[in-house]
Amino acid sequence: MPQLTVEEFGTFEVPAGKRLVNALIDEAATDQLHACGGLARCTTCRVQFIGGEPTAMTLAERQTLQARGIESPGVRLSCQISCGSDMKVQLISRLQGSGRSDQGNRPADSIEPEPQW
């Protein structure tokens, strides 16, 4: 099982193939935002990779990051990443201090929209 390390939260075993956004909620029990429900539209699920950043990126992720002007190295959308190897991330957008009433609708188990690599 891949290991997911989340700064300030710890290290967790994650089922291979699980969406990173759901692993942050389920295994790591973080308050990571995902306002659009994991559809690569809002960028609230952004994380900063410290280690183990996947090289593959969905077209939806690339287009959304470019449209929002987010070009920082290692900043990725957790809703567009499957856990396939060990990763270390720092949360960028959390419910705490956001003024939102909840994290967002639960993302589906599979990456949406249908990934184009």
Polypeptide structure, described:
With 117 residues, this protein is of the alpha+beta class. Helices cover 14% and strands 19% of the residues. It has two helices and five strands; from the N terminus they run ββαβαββ. The mean pLDDT is 97.
Keywords:
single chain; 117 residues; alpha+beta; Ubiquitin-like (UB roll); five-stranded mixed beta sheet; 5 strands; globular
Topology at a glance:
Blueprint: E1 3-6, E2 10-13, H1 20-26, E3 46-51, H2 59-67, E4 75-77, E5 87-91
Parallel strand pairs: 1-5
Antiparallel strand pairs: 1-2, 3-4, 3-5
Shape: globular
Order of helices and strands, N to C?
EEHEHEE
The assigned structural class equals alpha+beta
Helical amount: 10-25%
> What do we call the CATH homologous superfamily?
Beta-grasp domain
Q: Using the 3D structure, state the CATH architecture.
A: Roll
Task: Provide a concise account of the structure shown.
This protein is of the alpha+beta class. It has helices spanning 20-26, 59-67, and strands spanning 3-6, 10-13, 46-51, 75-77, 87-91.
